[in-house]
Amino acid sequence: MQFADRLNAIETSAIRELFKLLGKPGIISFAGGFPDPALFDVEGIAESTAAVLRTQSSAVLQYGATEGYGPLREALSQFMAAKGATVPPEGLIVTTGSQQALDLVGKTLISPGDKVIVESPTFLATIQCFRLYGAHLIGAPIDADGVDVDRLEQLIAEHRPKLVYLIPTFGNPSGATLSLARRKRILELAVRTGTIVVEDDPYGELYFDQAPPPSMLALSDSVPGNRDWLVHCGSLSKVLSPGLRVGWMIAPAPLLARATMCKQFSDAHTSNLTQATAAHYLGLNRLDAALANVRRTYAERAGVMAQCLRQELGDAVSFNAPQGGMFFWARLTGEGSGNAVAGPDAAAFAKRAIDKLVAFVPGAPFYCEQPDHATFRLSFATSDLAKIREGMQRLGQAL
Ligand code: PMP
């Protein structure tokens, strides 16, 4: 069978291969990127689904508008307003998860050979998706405060990219959060250089103690002209439930119009049933309590993971404890590791870990270029404290 040329740039990810091994009985997995299903507000979602079926059945079981279900666009406009961003309902479209918003960014903006700057490391599905549209990806280095803006400025000047894609808050996989000062500098940089900046923000609500800096979208009103260059992708996946597949895209009007057109050819519209359910849920006044529970639970798990990582792996790994989100990004230092001679290799470590019945994801696939093979990602979201303690002990034995 002759497949489209565009598939030549994509490989099935190493992570997929690893996931095949996760079925082993007794394995403790920190490999996934799923939220904890025990934290879903099933009661609230059930109540909302029943209510919309009872009161809006002909609308929610029917075809609907590509831009999104009216009441949800209004509810999301209010949701964004509560986070300091002014967006009228017609300034956003609902997408089938924020994953679709990223796909629409690729479809509407990237021609084969276009340069796109992403963080190094970044979300694997974005790398794959943008490559499908022929993007030439360039990695910008990051530290605990997010992307290095001096380097980003140089890369923009050198490559004149079509767009810059960032996960500024509790990044996947890095866990890093872009500082307020850097956010403002990037907003100014976008206007000054005429560069589109895509802010992907599925994790911003999952903070532990302190709310993160406002989103770049919320800050954009303070930088004249910035809204012409800013795209924001949001999602209810980590806030409410990924199974609803409700995300959204906020973009300058001409881009939003083209994204809507492309979405029409792709899935016509996102499920009205789940959109209406989400809209109803957001009106119930349950989200704050549900989120408080998620934040408290994840904060506790992240705290224990940090403590056990230090205790069980000591000098063998370095990491920055995240302040929110779902991930630790760690690096083998070469100290006390089984393959110190060959240089620390997280893929080999992952294989030894599987033998000890504990799993995580090696970091290399998250880099669009020049991977750091010593890095790896651990998710604490779906493991209770006992599993985290036991898993970290096993990890220590796999070094
Ligand atoms: N962006 C990032 C950074 C993610 O980690 C994810 C999901 N893991 C998504 C986008 C897509 O999420 P969804 O389609 O469920 O909104």
Question: Can you describe this structure?
Answer:
The chain has 399 residues and is an alpha/beta fold. The protein folds into two domains: 5-41 and 289-398, Aspartate Aminotransferase, domain 1, CATH 3.90.1150; 64-285, Aspartate Aminotransferase, domain 2. 42% of the residues lie in helices and 15% in strands. The protein has 14 helices and 14 strands. The protein has helices spanning 14-20, 42-55, 57-60, 70-82, 97-109, 124-132, 149-159, 180-193, 216-219, 253-267, 272-282, 287-313, 346-355, 385-398; strands at residues 28-29, 92-96, 115-120, 136-143, 146-147, 163-166, 196-200, 230-235, 246-250, 317-319, 327-332, 358-359, 361-362, 375-379. The strands form three sheets. An eight-stranded mixed β-sheet has the order 2-9-8-7-6-3-4-5, sandwiched between helices. α2 (42-55) packs across α11, α7 packs parallel to α8 and α13 (346-355) crosses α14 (385-398). The protein starts with 13 loop residues before the first helix and ends with a helix. The structure holds 4'-deoxy-4'-aminopyridoxal-5'-phosphate. Residues 33, 97-99, 123, 167, 172, 200, 202, 235, 237, 242, 247 line the site of 4'-deoxy-4'-aminopyridoxal-5'-phosphate.
